[in-house]
User: What shape does this take?
Amino acid sequence: MGAESIAVIGAGMSGVAAALVLARRGRRVVLVEKKERIGATLRGFTRGGVYFDTGLHYVGGLHGEGPLTRYFRLLGLDRLPLEMFNEDCFDLLRFPGLGLEVPLPVGREATVRVLSSIFPGDAAFIRKYFTRISEIFNSSPLLSFRTDASELLTDMQNTVSLADYLAGGTADPVLRTVLSIHSLLYGVSPEETPLHQHARIAASYLEGVGSVRGGGRALVAELEKALSLSGVKILCGKAAEKLRVSPGRGINAVLLEDGTEIPVEGALFTGHPHLLPPLLPQGSVKPAFRKRLLSLEDTCSAYALFCKCAPTPSFLRGGNLFICPDADTASAFRPDCDPRRGPFYLSGGRDGQADLRGLVIVAPGSARECAPYGASAPGRRPAAYARLKEERLRDIRQKCLAHCPELSGMSVLDGATPLTFRDYLDAPGCGLYGTKHSLHQFNPLPLTGIANLWMAGQSVIAPGILGAIVSAIAACVFILGREAVQEELAACA
Ligand SMILES: Cc1cc2nc3c(=O)[nH]c(=O)nc-3n(C[C@H](O)[C@H](O)[C@H](O)COP(=O)(O)OP(=O)(O)OC[C@H]3O[C@@H](n4cnc5c(N)ncnc54)[C@H](O)[C@@H]3O)c2cc1C
Assistant: This one.
């Protein structure tokens, strides 16, 4: 065992991943989580006997030596049962106003072939686009399992927006929407998203698309098993309230909300970046750093419907549906966005005896509408909020039924608003996926200015399950050194 002990604050995907890697390298790790159990974002919930996924619907990079497969192996999740999505259509895009459906198959060549047959005039650009995003994905250090710290930092700097890149290649707005549809999965508009950032997510869906059999709760169960074998000490149900900093030593203790003091020799914070500055004593970091973290904008928020669906339409059994009533989906990302206009993202739905899993409908929606009720807490919201929620969910349901009559057998068991997500995800700005990775803001890096305080999580490097793991590995490069992480990565090849 090494001498150091590190507190990892936050037990989501990134915090658990970092804790497991640090423990394997001999660090004594304490994992501190304010929620009652680890993996709150991923765990999902059950209503009326139906299980609903929250933070995991599908992932890419799950093929044989795909990056997520390798990272799952690195975390000791070799036995994670997977379910792969339909090879010929893992995402179906429906444009009701145009009478058009666009299936996205697994595989780069298959995708180029299918899209070129639908948009023949743009075949050359379609090929160029997928070649480009694959190149970016494959050359990104932690997706290609290289760990040079300087490359990690330069990899974050890129300047072309997805929208500009697409506009330079095709005049067809529908094709532009098709190529940027996965923006909905990270909640930032194509105008603001660096092409590189989009590529890190969208190109992961070119190979090995699927999920964990049993959903997010099955993933959390495996993470719990891995933690129990790792020696990581887990403290759930108490927030880290303060980090004690001394001039020469940096962070030397984590103080929990119940007054417990944990002496540490370093800390890794994985929560929403807005939540870090209040933990730090005045003067411990530069005011500009504090201000930068606090002014980061969140990704878009959403309303969601959790539905029982019998029978589940076949295309949802091994895939997702995007309904785009407007061919241009840009309005979904505006601060005044109306959740009733769509686009709508539909995922999940299994109606077998052994696997009763609900359908989740997500409609991007503005946090602003809910702002008047922001001071209320779950279970104690005012009547006006309840009316707003009911109206929005009813309208979204009707729109989805109108555009997807195959769902006529669905019943809504529960719903969520931007405020629900704020409280469930511990996201002060109601963002679904942490803070935006945008051309207009500089997201945190693993380094903080305090030598033994690091950051990881979906707001650092990239969002999603893969992004959260990559952020954890990036932080470990700075904590453990490049060679130690390189050894770990080589061992999971
Ligand atoms: C509806 C929805 C669907 C999604 N679907 C997918 C999908 O299909 N595929 C995919 O790849 N990704 C998906 N995601 C995104 C993915 O779930 C997240 O990117 C990922 O889980 C984030 O992990 P994290 O560790 O960065 O953050 P979190 O899960 O937010 O973990 C951070 C933790 O820190 C804790 N914390 C904060 N402050 C403190 C403190 N002071 N003391 C103690 N604990 C603290 C919080 O309670 C939290 O548990 C989805 C997200 C949502 C909301």
User: Anything to note?
Assistant: The chain has three domains: 5-80+213-296+437-491, 106-208, 300-432. The longest strand covers residues 356-365. The two ends are 25 Å apart (CA to CA). The pocket of flavin-adenine dinucleotide is lined by residues 9-15, 32-35, 40-42, 54-59, 239-240, 270-271, 275, 425-426, 432-433, 457-458, 463-466, 468 (CB under 6 Å).
